[in-house]
Amino acid sequence: MMNACFTPEERERLARASVLLIGCGGLGSPVAYELAAAGVGRIGLCDMDEVDLSNLQRQVLHHTADVGRPKVESGREKILALRPGTQVDLHPVTLTSENALELFRQYDLILDGSDNFATRYLVNDACVLTGRPQVHGSIFRFDGQVTTFVPGQGPCYRCIYPTPPPPGSVPSCAEAGVIGVLPGFIGSLMAMEALKLLAGRGTGLTGRLLIYSALDMDVAEVQIRRNPECPVCGDHPTIHELIDYEQFCGGVGA
Amino acid sequence: MSLTEQDILRYARHIIMPEVGGRGQKRIKAASVLVAGLGAAGSAAALYLAAAGVGRLTLWDPAELTEADLTQAIAHARSSLGQSRAASARGKLLAINPDAAVAASADPDALPDLVAGHQVVVATAGDWEAVQSAVLQAGASAVFAGVQGAAGAALAHRPGTACLGCIPAEERDRAGLRPEGEGCAVAAAGGVVGTVAATEALKLILDIGSPLTDRLWAYDGWTARFRETGVSRRPDCPLCGGD
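^ Those are the sequences you sent over. The predicted structure of the assembly is below.
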């Protein structure tokens, strides 16, 4: 099973590559299928949730019969149904400051499809500390963002978002809603960027933030730069180990 | 078309948004969409339209599912090898949403006649000129979208806007707006273009946002660049004749 869009050398690189998906929900769904289809050798799924009926309008990795099952198990089945040779490693855990570094060191690339700010900062800091590139995506109602953070080659998430929004100021997906196809678009862009990094071809999104509006069908591009003062990837970093991200994002003691 | 209690739970993330709401979800449920081509872009479009709650879907693709398809189109499974791509995708769509009425056609000659009776056509393969003519005759809407390699393009049409024929063939070709054929495609790029097609189909059904009508949209995956070209109706268009 080979895809002629990739050269033999690129296919070999993809087959040897490993990617960790943070979240098997809206963003993780297209990514899981599309990385498996392209022949990425090892895919790690990190999610501790179970499939809920309200997930199914956007999380196409899961079938109606999967409601109530762990997302990582449902995800593994779909990946193997498309490409049986894929090694799928399951991490049915909450990503924490205690387990993130060890987990990230087992993979070449991290794909952040998480849905909350504490996890985004945790993923970012863990990527910087382990030197792992990260493809980042986020969605909100009809809008989304995508970029790639490569340690040493451009900004990190903290460079462009130094502080989290005040708790409660940004409604969740459940509170604000989301058009089901939106994570399909953002997740597919993320998968394409991951494939480029792993295959070693094309121009990536390092230093470029894409801002998407589904209602306008418009993609705007913003140049983003590394902040020399960044506490985690700047010239004089002050963060040398993972912190308490719930506290950081909850504003406790701030 | 009313919503069941299960519908309200399943589509809660749609219903909570004023742009969709209960009324919009009912419109999605009452809608019928024909997806022509279940390759890279068509697969993603069909999956997301079924997940979004489109009540009736017709899938057309005469090709038999091959090993190569499994490396580039995500609406299929290895266990469906040997089936038509339309039948394979039908099984996948029903697993995602058993409430949808999904029909599959693998008859190579059926396509233009299938258009009548559908509100929106998502065309990723087949004879696009014939599809556009049938869409004009039926007064339906359409989204043309396709991926070659890691690049693709899309255009939406609804009555009164520029049709496929209003864009000279060379211009379409330059933008990458072509039906998918035998060539390879990257599934992720198919996902990008196919979800744009599904988004536009939903916007046409809901009558929200700025549709991709009179706008030729293109994506290049290897550079992550997007481009848009304005297009307009041509009085001498061979398909719509400007009327």
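Chain A has nine helices and eight strands. The CA atoms of residues 146 and 200 of chain A lie 19 Å apart.

Shout if you want it in another format.
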